Amino acid sequence: MVGAFERPTACEPWGTVMSELNELLGQTLESAAHGLFEHLGVDAFIGEATENLKHDIACSVGFASPTLRGSLTLTADQAFVTACRPPEVRGAEATAADISDWMGELGNQLLGRFKNRLISYGVVVELGTPAVLYGFQIQRHSGRMPIACQRLVRSQHGTLSVHIDAHASPDFQMQEVQSEDQAMPEGELALF
Amino acid sequence: MSKKVIVIDDSQTVRQQVGLALSQAGFEVVEAVDGKEGLTTIQKTKDAAMAICDVNMPRMNGLEMLEALAQTGSKLPVLMLTTEGQPQLIERAKKSGAKGWIVKPFKAELLVAAVKKLTA
User: How far from chain centre, in Å, is Cα B111?
Assistant: First the structure.
């Protein structure tokens, strides 16, 4: 848990409220990214994105709930994506299709972790399927969404930028939920 | 003769990853790229021992496939392998006859142990 976001009171300035929400969602995103890259065995530094880097592959996945909707966008160096493929397939030479496929799966797994952390706050979003793009000098520019948080992942193989752009309805809240309503943790198995 | 496992996932990398883990453990793997193809592959592969299925996929998702499969009266054990950990989705899968749920990313040894148990 990295905090809570409660419905703003009438006298709170909306800018302050959005800044708190951005901060909380940014921490949630960072926690999700840490978990994923640690599992993948990637020695990576994750921090605030202070530069707008140019990359050569991008991925976007949408998410929606009645009170929060938006998208996760990743832009990265292909070398970074290639180097963080699962250990079982990392030895084989990666084709453009392999890199594209893994970029989509990275978006899927990162947004899955983000979703599972949001469930801890009583927010349940539905996920879309990833779209991947190749290009030269791809840069993500912030759009018209009021919520925008980003993190930068650096490794010896290059960088990956992670962005969440979202819109929250005025009744959106993030509050801790009971343990039985928590998401099943990543890497766990349940047999029925 | 090795047991046959159908792996349904829209990510080629995940299918490769699961396929390698299972073939090293002595299983034969048949692949499908989404729920729609998964359903057809299950119906065609009469000697399959079980299926492993993702949830979020284009055309037909894993839960829709599971529900469609239940309507055919199939008793094939299905293990869900997904990034989703939402309790309501797990419950929905359980009600539709899924035999297990793993939240990605997974450790190969955990997956193989589950497959051995479900195909025993």
Answer: 11
